């Protein structure tokens, strides 16, 4: 079964040669998990059991959200998120357009 990114509108797939890394919700840190839920526009009352199954691909994080290798250290095989990383919020494009162009 091929996993896809659960970020709204994203169709990235977790396949062998994918340039994306896929990340689980931080369910053990309730405050951080709520930030992820809000960023993706998921209802705040969604059960943790369902949230545990969701994944977000690396396209929705900035480069600063990932751990970097130190000089002299081998390149990491997969990108690892910092503990404080939160996906970029899902923006309602219609509302954003109205705020920018109709103001």
Report on this structure.
The protein is α+β, with helices and mostly antiparallel strands. It has one domain. Helices cover 23% and strands 10% of the residues. It contains three helices and four strands. The protein has a two-stranded antiparallel sheet. Strand 1 (3-4) and strand 2 form a beta hairpin. The protein is globular. The N and C termini lie far apart (46 Å). Mean pLDDT is 83; it is low at 93-103. InterPro entries: THAP1/10 (IPR026516), THAP_Znf (IPR006612), THAP_Znf_sf (IPR038441). Residues 1-90 form the THAP-type domain. One of its GO terms (cellular component) is nucleoplasm. Belongs to the THAP1 family. It is found in: Nucleus, Nucleoplasm.
- Please give the largest β-sheet: 2 strands, antiparallel
* Shape, principal axes of CA atoms: globular
Ends distance: 46 Å
Count of alpha/pi helices: 3
Secondary structure tally: strands: 4
* Helicity level: 10-25%
Structural class: alpha+beta
Report low-confidence residues grouped into runs of 5 or more.
Answer: 93-103
> How many domains make up the coordinates?
1
- Mean pLDDT, all residues: 83
Alpha-carbon Rg, integer: 16 Å
InterPro entries: THAP1/10, THAP_Znf, THAP_Znf_sf
GO cellular component, one term: nucleoplasm
Subcellular location: Nucleus, Nucleoplasm
Domain THAP-type: 1-90
């Amino acid at each position: 079964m091929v996993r896809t990114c659960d970020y709204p509108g994203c169709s990235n797939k977790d396949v062998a040669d994918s340039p994306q890394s896929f990340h689980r919700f931080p369910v053990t840190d309730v405050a951080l998990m709520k930030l992820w839920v809000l960023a993706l526009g998921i209802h705040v009352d969604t059960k943790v059991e369902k949230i545990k199954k969701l994944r977000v691909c690396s396209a929705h994080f900035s480069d600063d959200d990932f751990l970097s290798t130190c000089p002299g250290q081998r390149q990491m095989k997969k990108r690892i998120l910092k503990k404080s990383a939160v996906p970029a919020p899902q923006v309602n494009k219609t509302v954003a357009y109205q705020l920018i162009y109709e103001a």
